[in-house]
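User: Hey, my collaborator sent me this sequence without any context and asked if I could get a structure. I don't really work with proteins. Can you help?
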Amino acid sequence: MQRYKCTLAYDGTGFAGYQVQPGKRTVQLEVEEALSRIHKGQAIRIAASGRTDAGVHARGQVVHFDSALGIPAERWKKALNAMLPDDISILDVIPVDTAFHARFNSIRKEYRYRISLREERDPFLRHYAYHYPYRLDLEAMKEAAQLLTGTHDFTSFCSAKTEVIDRVRTVEEIIFNTNDDELVIQFIGDGFLYNMVRILTGTLLEVGSGRRDPAEMEKILAAKDRVQAGKTAPGHGLYLWKVDYAITTNPGVTFS
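Assistant: No problem. I've predicted the 3D structure and written it out in structure-token form, which is a compact way to encode the shape of the chain:
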């Protein structure tokens, strides 16, 4: 049995999210069905670095799966892409040690949130960037972001539906990139809670539009109360961009 680390990109527009849900189209379902066809009907399960919600995109989602087929590693990418729909693309497939886990071995993730600042709606961006046609004070947003970086309990910045008890996370960087009429916010950290990036984005936009003072971030963090933070930004502007690992490949692994 060989384990593989698989990096994939997907357009989240047509999915109800990453995770399998009864009667709904999901990324996990599509990938597992493709693997099942390659394995002549055998059910193959995948484990991901994390879930993404309906409408959320990925440029660097990572999953792992096990297979007893003696397919050379370089052929897996082509085989899977031939089986998958056009809104999912396999970027690479690499053999790894059986100790590797796409979720538990992750040491860093990067999300990007894309915001269109154009006055008029661009119909070609409606699924890929949040339309926010208001003047923003980027310096105020950067000041607020500084207070949000570091290690904190982010209870105020995650969904009330969050199931995990430990809500302490480290946000290493929040970076603002502007290009023409677009703002992209990069969030880099050791992990993110359910809806955390979208709530951080919504709160930062409220700071940028003058509805909140940057100094409020300290009070919001201390409150550990979701109602204290800003609105949750829409899912379609969010991208899971990259996942980093301490454990990667083990070229010496052989099939058994």
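In plain terms: The two ends are 5 Å apart (CA to CA). You can pass these tokens on to your collaborator as they are.
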